[in-house]
Amino acid sequence: MVYRDLQQFIKALDAAGELRYIDARVSPHLEITEIVDRVSKAHGKALLFRNVEGSDYPVLINAMGSFKRMCMALGVESLDDIGEEIADYLDFSNYLSISKLIKSVPRLLRLLNIFPVKSRLKGECQQVIEKDVNLETLPVLKCWPEDAGRFITLPLVFTKDLKTRQQNVGMYRMQILDKTSTAMHWHKHKDGSEIYRAYKENKLKMPVSVALGCDPAITYAATAPLPKGIDEMMFAGWLRKSRVKMVKCITNDIYVPANAEIVLEGYVDPEEDLVLEGPFGDHTGYYSLADYYPKFHVTCITHKKNAVYPATVVGKPPMEDCYMAKATERIFLPFLKIQMPELVDLNLPLEGVFHNCAIVSVDNRYPGCARKIMNCIWGIGQMMYTKLIVVVDRTVNVQNLAEVRDAVLRNVCGAESLVISEGPLDALDHSSNRALYGSRLGMDATNASHVPGSNLTETYRIIPIHKEKPWHGRETLEEAMKQYRDKFYIVVDDGVDPEDLSTVMWKVFNNIDAKRDMIIFDNKIGIDATKKWKEEGLTRDWPNDIVMTDAVKQLVTERWDEYGID
What we know:
Blueprint: H1 6-15, E1 19-22, H2 31-41, E2 46-49, E3 59-61, H3 67-74, H4 79-90, H5 98-109, E4 117-119, E5 128-130, E6 151-152, E7 156-160, E8 167-170, E9 174-178, E10 181-183, H6 191-201, E11 206-212, H7 216-223, H8 232-240, E12 245-248, E13 255-257, E14 262-268, E15 275-277, E16 280-281, E17 287-288, E18 291-293, E19 295-303, E20 309-311, H9 320-339, E21 343-347, E22 357-362, H10 369-377, E23 388-393, H11 401-411, E24 418-424, E25 437-444, E26 457-465, H12 472-483, E27 486-493, H13 501-511, H14 514-517, E28 518-521, E29 524-528, H15 550-563
Parallel strand pairs: 1-2, 3-20, 4-12, 22-23, 23-25, 26-27, 27-29
Antiparallel strand pairs: 2-3, 5-19, 6-9, 7-8, 7-11, 9-10, 10-19, 11-14, 12-13, 14-19, 15-18, 16-17, 21-22, 24-25, 28-29
Helix pairs in contact: 4-9, 7-8
């Protein structure tokens, strides 16, 4: 289904029983987050808060926070449908005969209807024009207790390449600084940051516009890891099977989706000093630390007369963004298969927060196939950030983590099964001794890696400790590995339930630098997933886990019946 705008999607969610309206008066300061976090962890519905303190705008949140709603957002029955359709486009055997080519004509004609169209008229997003800017009228959330302030969490940030004049859109969080400005969280590896550097080199102000509340296909497209030069709005047009109508902004020459709910227009001046942004409770489940980023000046706000403000809350998975990531996994799998013909399937587990873990199954055709796949993944676009790659045989269902676990315990045996590589890491990774760079781990769990006759048991041992000194985790591993015959040993901080394997794996994926935190002894593998100290070589601050305050938890518990969610 093609949604005309976000509000039509809201109506579809309501009709499908996937939306809950909350009319109780709620605070955008932590209270909404606690409500949404509970709903997300319970795999609950989308929420529309219609009575938010300090603002006249309703807040839509968790709109794509389930597989069903993610499929609704993209107009498919299954996320695999999109990947299969892409695979058909990429299968050149469909074009090798006249009869097959004729059958492909309807599919190829669809490509003519994906290019965005620029309108000379004003859009619905410009029904109200506010040049006396006041960002405080927006119901921007303070999500977590240690956040530096209020953050716009679902912005579509439109910029224009200085040389090619081609527009780019990405999703970068924005911390409210005052009534007329925000910080712009452009990571060094992102397109927005690259475009910014070009303006800085030429000492030119950079026009920027931010669309809030587009139809869900457009919002998803802004997050998609497209190859450089591919227009996100063209991709959105393909997803929604209809062109995206764009209109020119009032105070700059950026074009934005005509049916957006709210648009923030303005500029970034690269000649200005950077501003301190953060901390922010991020999708890793940890706070990303404060750092310096460009300042976005808002010169105009335009919006619909009945605009809805969109938001998302990120934190320890599962949260809404997890389902957007799973969509990316399924949609882009065919492109990966072109570059890696041996690849069968891919799973980016929720505990890996998108960039910390990839599980792949392969057609293990030749010696070294698993290692070839690892190196290829580390060389492809944003997958270069993947901290752990587990490779299994094609007979293993990578979507079934129990099957993957059994393959790892059966086949992985000491150093011969492991590859440690150094390279770029995501800006949000906190485990390496230096920012943006560290070690990544590859694990060959295919049958080719199996060592027969091992005297080790195909088991693992999880050991919580109260860390009292530097290298306490390593010492604990060494003692246990001498004493027991398990294949794997994982040390975690006390407070982590060793029976909660999801949380244990989340800690492992977030907290280890493979080169520093692994021990191999007598074909046994030890992993120190504890918080690291500066005495252990860490040169940066270690962020805190995201935890809501007891006071807010109690408030939400006491008011739960008022919300009317259940």
